[in-house]
Amino acid sequence: AVIALCRAAQTARNRFGTLGDETGAIWTRTGRSFFNDPAMTEGLLARLRAGVEAAELWEELNSDWLLLDTEIMPWSAKASSLIESQYAPVATSSAAGFQVSREALARAMARGVDATALNARLEDRASRAAKYAIAWAPYVWPVSDIDGLKVAPFHLLASEGRVWFDQDHIWHMTLADRLAAGDGVVTRTRWRTVDLADASACAEAVAWWEALTGSGGEGMVVKPLDFISRSKKGLIQPALKVRGREYLRIIYGPEYDAPDNLVRLRERSLGGKRSSALREFALGHQALKRFVAKQPLRRIHECVFGVLALESEPIDPRL
What we know:
Layout: E1 2-6, H1 9-16, E2 24-27, H2 38-54, H3 57-61, E3 65-73, H4 76-110, H5 116-135, E4 150-159, E5 162-163, H6 169-180, H7 199-214, E6 219-222, E7 230-231, E8 234-235, E9 240-243, H8 245-252, H9 259-266, H10 271-292, H11 297-311
Helix pairs in contact: 4-5, 10-11
């Protein structure tokens, strides 16, 4: 989620043109309001504001507003309908279907039919379906109020007079850790730096990822040290998600890791997705620079509509 956090309602009116008493906004990455309840939005903003005040960031950054890139958990707080309408029905129907198949095979084998190979294949598929049924459990818990939420900040995108893309990721994560030291609703993201020229450091990072995902973690995001990095070929991807085996099961389905399916997945072309991601990153950066420079709204919207156009391209959203 992207959070516009203002020190007071007057700041929101002056800088963002709001008309009411709101002190900011919380959006999904597609620009929609994260919460349907304005009271929930304001309550969470108040908790975040307390964290910023405790860290004395208003004074340090010389700004009365901040634009933060964050993750709000659990994702069931926003995607409960997706679980109820898609994930859970698939898990339930799979369990029921495999049970019927087991019973049919048992009857056939009782009559002397050699179904050993078929039964082994069935049990293999059933075990994958069982893993799918619990794959989303680490990301789901009941939320009745703000105390049930966790906010993990990882970028300070902008503040008054400044876009912070010139600071490296160590700076951003250190700032995020300071926010997490205050109010309990803000949680710390585990992070580490890795020297890619050091084979042992790379091996340690792989082991760390394996332990993380093996204990139910989603995975990790690998980023260049600098927020904006370039090679001889141009702009480098700003981030790469490296998700764990079980999280990928949610995205690609119960049997995605069967050998035949993995072959097909590895044949996918990622060029279009990578190209769009780089262009969206550049447009987002430009939009922030124009906003901070107080350029006319139409100039900012040029970039925003460019991002929306790229998002509408028919590219597999699961990539």
